[in-house]
């Protein structure tokens, strides 16, 4: 069953050494995806076609999904699922619209201003996974922030199913969002197609979206040629809970994320041994009733999952900060106060009625979040991901004059006399060179 780590007593100096985490060797996967990316770079659409046949088992003369397929998927969408997707889009848009930053102009000296202009990336490629599970919700989480940022050209890629098309729910989500450029390509070859462009698909400047280890490795490999978001790999949930938490809820929430992937991580951090035992019992009882019992058991018994016992909620906070989970639930007395002290997490879910499942679909928040501990330095997907802050510098002659001697002094100190000369030329060389 799920392993236990007893950290009652003084906490080790580097908690990360003792906390459960997947052995996800993206570096090793790099060597596997390098030839895939090189092949797409040199042979374009022909390589994409062969790789799709090899990894997804379908032969597609063109990767581009025809407009009729998008329309048909929307027409065939279950009305209840359509209503849920529409409400998810509405809520996600509400939150992301509020993230937009205004340009800011700072008057540094009279006549000298710097404006920070937020300019959207022109063309982006958005990846929606479609291997073990299908994620129309990930289409929403990628597309809405890009649209709200003002990105003018966007394409979605998702692996083909047996019929040669991405899952109909993915296509329907694209249609609902008004995205008509969709490709039936998955894995590393999709990221390479976006980065290098093919006869079917013009290249993009940035690729975002979650995916498996091959997708993550391709993004890491091609970073620089393209911009990428944080690596969003196999999903993770950490729950910080005390004796007041309901073990039925805690177990259900751990299972809900373990359901994504055998490599998904589910970690309970608690100062209550009674809760730990009750959650273990609940896990055993609830797993038997789940559809994906095998995948869930693999995730919960894997080295990436566990129950961590701590002496206090203060120590628990140190543990979850060191772990930097993609999703962190706080199920303690006064959960809001505990949540306010969290430093490292992709997203924080406060109290008994904000489970991660809500955030996966309908909270309004984004579910493309950093995994593998990256939450200590990176954020989830947002409008900001798709914007570049460009400084616009506008100085008059008197404003430049005020700084001229200082610029020349620093240019001399850095032994870059040409820099000083560019200033002095504007003042008839009146400023002495040193
Ligand atoms: P996926 O779309 O990421 O990958 C499927 C593709 O992988 C296939 O199309 C195939 O081309 C390629 N592939 C399969 N085996 C391969 C091999 N041996 N070599 C090279 N390429 C191969 O779908 P998935 O596999 O279901 O993974 C989705 C992942 O995304 C899960 O781990 C899930 O937890 C994660 N996820 C994360 C977030 C997040 O925000 N962190 C959100 C949703 C999903």
Q: What small molecules does this complex bind?
A: nicotinamide-adenine-dinucleotide
Question: Mean pLDDT, nearest integer?
Answer: 95
The CATH architecture classification of the largest domain is: 3-Layer(aba) Sandwich
- Please work out how many helical segments DSSP would assign: 15
Overview in brief:
With 434 residues, this protein is of the alpha/beta class. The protein has helices at 26-56, 67-75, 79-97, 136-149, 168-177, 187-196, 213-222, 247-258, 273-287, 293-301, 313-323, 335-339, 356-361, 397-413, 417-424; strands at 4-6, 104-109, 112-120, 123-127, 153-158, 182-184, 206-208, 227-228, 236-241, 265-270, 306-309, 327-331, 347-350, 387-395. The protein has two domains: 3-24 and 233-364, Nitrogenase molybdenum iron protein domain (Rossmann fold, 3-Layer(aba) Sandwich), CATH 3.40.50.1980; 26-105 and 122-231, Rossmann fold, CATH 3.40.50.1980.
């Amino acid at each position: 069953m799920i392993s236990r780590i007893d950290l009652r007593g003084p906490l080790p100096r580097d908690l990360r050494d003792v906390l459960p985490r997947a052995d996800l060797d993206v570096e090793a996967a790099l060597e596997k995806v390098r030839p895939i990316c090189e092949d797409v770079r040199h042979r374009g659409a022909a390589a994409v076609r062969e790789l799709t046949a090899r990894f997804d088992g379908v032969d597609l003369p063109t990767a581009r999904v025809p407009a009729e397929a998008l329309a048909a998927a929307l027409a065939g969408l279950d009305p209840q699922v359509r209503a849920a997707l529409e409400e998810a889009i509405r809520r996600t848009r509400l939150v992301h619209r509020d993230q937009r930053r205004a340009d800011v102009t700072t008057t540094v000296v009279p006549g000298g201003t710097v404006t920070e202009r937020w300019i959207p990336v022109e063309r982006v490629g958005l990846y929606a996974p479609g291997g073990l599970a299908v994620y129309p919700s990930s289409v929403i989480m990628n597309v809405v922030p890009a649209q709200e940022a003002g990105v003018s050209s966007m394409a979605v890629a998702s692996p083909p199913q047996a019929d040669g098309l991405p899952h109909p729910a993915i296509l329907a989500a694209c249609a609902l969002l008004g995205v008509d450029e969709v490709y039936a390509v998955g894995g590393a070859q999709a990221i390479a197609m976006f980065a290098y462009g093919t006869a079917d698909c013009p290249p993009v400047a940035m690729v975002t979206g979650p995916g498996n280890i091959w997708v993550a490795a391709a993004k890491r490999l091609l970073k620089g040629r393209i911009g990428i978001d944080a690596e969003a790999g196999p999903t993770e949930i950490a729950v910080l809970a005390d004796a007041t938490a309901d073990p039925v809820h805690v177990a259900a929430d751990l299972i809900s994320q373990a359901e994504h992937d055998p490599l998904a991580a589910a970690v309970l951090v608690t100062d209550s041994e009674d809760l730990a035992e009750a959650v273990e019992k609940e896990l055993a009882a609830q797993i038997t009733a789940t559809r994906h019992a095998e995948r869930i058991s693999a995730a919960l018994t894997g080295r990436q999952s566990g129950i961590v016992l701590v002496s206090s909620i203060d120590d628990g906070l140190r543990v979850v900060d060191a772990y930097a989970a993609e999703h962190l639930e706080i199920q303690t007395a006064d959960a809001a106060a505990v949540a306010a002290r969290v430093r490292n997490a992709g997203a924080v879910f406060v109290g008994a009625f904000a489970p991660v499942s809500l955030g996966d679909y309908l909270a309004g928040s984004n579910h493309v979040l950093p995994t593998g501990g990256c939450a200590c330095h990176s954020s989830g997907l947002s409008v900001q991901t798709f914007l570049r802050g460009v400084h616009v510098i506008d100085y008059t002659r008197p404003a430049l004059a005020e700084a001229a001697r200082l610029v020349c002094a620093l240019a001399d100190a850095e032994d870059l006399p040409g820099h000083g000369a560019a200033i002095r030329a504007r003042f008839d060389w009146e400023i002495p060179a040193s």
